[in-house]
């Protein structure tokens, strides 16, 4: 009985740690963008540097996504999560104090690197501790990620108007440090033999995720979803402005697009868990994307809210992909490897989305080529999802063999 109570308390503590960590994973991105003009006026950097700031998130998510599985094997998942939250907190706190561009870039990279580690390490932690309630816990942390995207975007400017941009930029560090506290507690419990809990050790394997069609399917599904999503976040205001909409309306549509992510975050994980093969849901999401693209291309102001609602439902494949990381792996070690590969490769490709969308627009002086590019991305998404959604696990196709220790 005492052991059961202790185990329950341990799982509740980890649940709180995962939920709080999810609230950190986008703060450094959406707390900066609304303040870029104010910060530029004081520190003095060009619009090109603003573009560099825009590319850092996906670049850091990609680099640390690929590196995190090795870090997790070396340090353990819980300690890696703690380091991620401390990196995010320190980076967000110190960048708000900087007076030069390079320091601001470097410390933003530190914060985003921590968030990139967190992106990858949370799914295998869910797999390790909550394999019996994957859909529920996945929904909780994905909703947390969505909230960390939406809330700073809405409150950054009011905070800056009231207290200055440095306070507005740095206050989110408190969330990062708060999220580190339960991970410290988790590690302390694991070191206490009286609790009856022992931190599991990751099995050492030489599995190669890139040998697996599951891995490449997941990377294609996740990467193309991210590419389309980041492109639309960047270009919705310009697309609507070209059609005669006001800047305020364009901003409101970006907000609506972001808010719809909460709808999919609540429903998609449960749907994935209940379906042996959720590929039909992906096809429905792809259809939403394509109808929205056609509407925004041909007649953007004829029914703009409808187009944005459909566009916002398309990225339901994002929480689906995060949930499938656990559903398509047998162990938390497999989940960690699949998570790192999926997000590392996916975010690498996603970096190019907003840039190429704009390049095609500039080359053609219209949106036709840009939306053709988005259509190709959706085709790749569907192709990848066909492989990712099949009911199988990555460990069966990555040529794993145990490595002897010692």
UniProtKB/TrEMBL annotation:
Entry coiled-coil feature ranges: none
TM region positions: 12-37, 43-68, 80-98, 104-122, 134-157, 169-188, 214-236, 248-267, 279-299, 305-325, 337-360, 366-386
Signal peptide: none
KW Electron transport (keyword) present: no
Stored CDD domains: MFS_NIMT_CynX_like
Keywords: Membrane, Transmembrane, Transmembrane helix
Highest taxon listed in the record's lineage: Bacteria
Keyword Transferase annotated: no
InterPro entries: MFS, MFS_Cyanate_Porter, MFS_trans_sf
Protein name, entry field: MFS transporter, CP family, cyanate transporter
Species annotation: Rhodococcus rhodochrous J3
